[in-house]
Amino acid sequence: MTELFGQTHDAAGLAARTGNLSQIGGVRLVTCGDGLERGIRMLEFRTGSGLSFSVLVDRAMDIADVAHKGRAIGWHSPTGFRHPALHEPEGEDGLGWVRSFSGFLATCGLDHILGPEEVDASSYDYPRRNTVRHGLHGRVGAIPARLTGYGERWEGDRCILWAEGVVTQAAVFGEVLELHRQIEADLGGNDIRLTDRVVNAGFSRTPHMMMYHVNIGWPLLDEGSRYLAPVGDVVWTSHAPDLAVQDTGYRICTAPSATFREQVWEHAMVADTGGIVPVALVNDRLGLGIVVESRRDQLPCALEWQNFRSGLYALGIEPATHHVLGNRFARDRDEMIWLEHGQSRRYDLRFSVLDGAKEIAVAEARISAIARQPESAFPAPSGNFAPLDHQIGSAG
C-alpha cells in the first residue's frame, strides 16, 4: 500500500483519483538547454511525499538536486553541472575535477579515489605505459551513462520509481570497468536507494577503488547542525596537530567564513548487527535531517569533509573502500582491490530524509545505540589505520 497525504491507497484507488500517476509523482526524462549544462540528460524523480531529486544521466547517473517539501538538502557549487564535453580530467595537475564538482552525490572511482597520484600500470602489460596518472577522485564522475531503463513499476500495491544505467570507464591498454547503477524510491516514500555493481569487463588484472562523496548544503547545513555517527575511533585529520585552529570540531557545524580552509576527518565507524553504518546530518531548528546508510563490509572507511568557506558551504559524508591516504598507501599495504576478468563488487546505499523532531530523535537514538561518538569536539586522531580485508562479504 502507498501512503500519500495522510491516506493509504492501493493501485486501483490511486488510479481512480488521478488521470495519470504523473499528477502526484513519477520519473521524467528531460534535457538541459542552456549554459554549461546544455545537452545533459536528467531524470526528475518525485515521490509525492515532498521528496524530489534529479539524476544526471550524462554524469555517471550521479544525484544532483535533493529537496524535501521545498527545503534543499543537496549542495550546488559555483561550477554548475557541467556537460562532460567541458570536463578537464587531465587539467591543472590533476585538480581539473574541482571545475566540475557539484551536487548531492559525486561518485569517485572506479580505479582511483582521493588526491592526484602517479602509480604503477604494469598489470596492463603495455610497454609504452609503465605508470598511470590519476587526477583527484578519478574519472568516472564525468562519463555519460547508457540509460537502460527508467519509469514506475507496481509490485502489488507498492509503486517503485526506478532508473538503471551503465557507465563504462575504459582505455585501450588500460582499465575496462563498468558501473551498473540502479536508483529506486517508493511512491509516498522519503528514501532513495542506490545499488551499484562494478565489473571488470576487460581481460587485464585491474585495480578498483570507490568513494561516495555525499554533499549536503544549506539550509540543512547551517550553524549548529549536528553530525551524528557511530564513531568508534577518530583515525586521521587534515589539520592536525592544531585541531582547534579554526574553532570547528567534527560534531557541530559552524557558519560560513570567507577564510575557512577545508577540514577532512577519517573515522572508524561501528556497524549495527546487520552490518549497516548510519551517518546523519540534522538541523534541529528546521526539524530536517538526512541519514546516509552504507555497509561496512562493502565500504569499510568513512570520511567527513567540512567545507565551510563562504560561497562553497558544504558538508560531505563519504563512505569509501580505502583509507584517506590514497592509492599508493593502499598498494603499499596490500589493500588494493584487484579485479580479474568478470569479477565484480557490489555497493548498497540508502539516503533517508528525516522530517521533524521525532524522526531526528529516533535516528539519533539508533546511532547512539550502535556506538556513542566522542563527546569532545576535537578528539585526538589515533593514526590507527585498521587493516582492510576486501575479501569479506563485498564481492558482487
UniProtKB/TrEMBL annotation:
InterPro entries: DUF4432, GH-type_carb-bd. This is DUF4432 domain-containing protein. It holds the Pfam family DUF4432. It comes from Paragemmobacter aquarius. One of its GO terms (molecular function) is carbohydrate binding. Gene3D superfamilies: 2.70.98.10. It comes from the Bacteria. Keywords: Plasmid.
